[in-house]
User: What shape does this take?
Amino acid sequence: MDVVVGIDIGGTKTKIGLVNKQGQVLEQTYFRTRHYPILEEYLDQIDTTIDILIRQCVTPVELLGIGIGAPNASSKNGTIEHASNLVWKGIVPIVEILQQRRALPTKLMNDASVAALGELLFGNAQNMTDFIVVTLGTGFGSGIVANGKLIDGYDGFAGELGHLDITLGDGRLTGQGVSGGLEAYVSATGLKRTVMYMLAYHMDDSRFRSIAYTDLHGEEITQAADEGDLIAIKAFDYTAKILGTALANFVAFTQPQAFILMGGLADSQKWLVEPARKYMEASLLPFYKGKVQLLSSGLKKSEAAICGAASLIWQDYGVMEV
Assistant: This one.
């Protein structure tokens, strides 16, 4: 059976799986990225993990290639460059090194862009030509498909919408040091920061008045909102307004049929997604109103990143013209 290795490199976890042509993840596992601060030892662990997954398959498999999604990844250069949340600094030529270890086609792309490619091949965008995937996790990622083509840009770094300045340079810093960048407001981290802001700005009683920032988690904010905590509700509404307004701005330059939201924060439909839809619709130009959908990912949450990475290779095998 032909399979592709899909690798999702995150600041906390590296997820690896074997994916067939139908987008099914046959075997998968993960290990802690930060446990391997030396690049060669990290790549040794990738090699070992791939071999283990192959042995676990009931049916013998043949590897067709390796697809990798990572932050700050250049699809054109095969490098990870100056990633703020990874332990290896500078420019990391990861594709070149992996191909020296395994004589297989190996491709790399920004993690949110491969998420968009995964949706195009295997998810909710299979019949779409124009859409934007937005990943709402620790940060804010985006992958843009226009006219049926993934937009990766001149140097492979297109789609960094999370670092657009929404405050004219007078706001919170993103992980890349952008003042007023969108992801500093619309992300799990941004939501936590907004809770702290609301505590300082409003006098409402809240469970968060006795919780330190470092002990605060996104799931707690959702639970508090469900229980009527006014600080949590105000924090979500503030976040949803910024997200909805930003999405309306994005519509103006590619006119997507849909935004596909994924990541932990996107699970909060009642408090984030539905209000964001309202704010987006209110901000759209008249000729865009009623035309843009907000959808959830069509991929299993535990498999989406791996499928997206694998799609970098599968797109070359006739799964879909992209």
Summary: Residues 2-120+301-317 form a domain with the Nucleotidyltransferase; domain 5 fold (CATH 3.30.420.40). The radius of gyration is 20 Å.
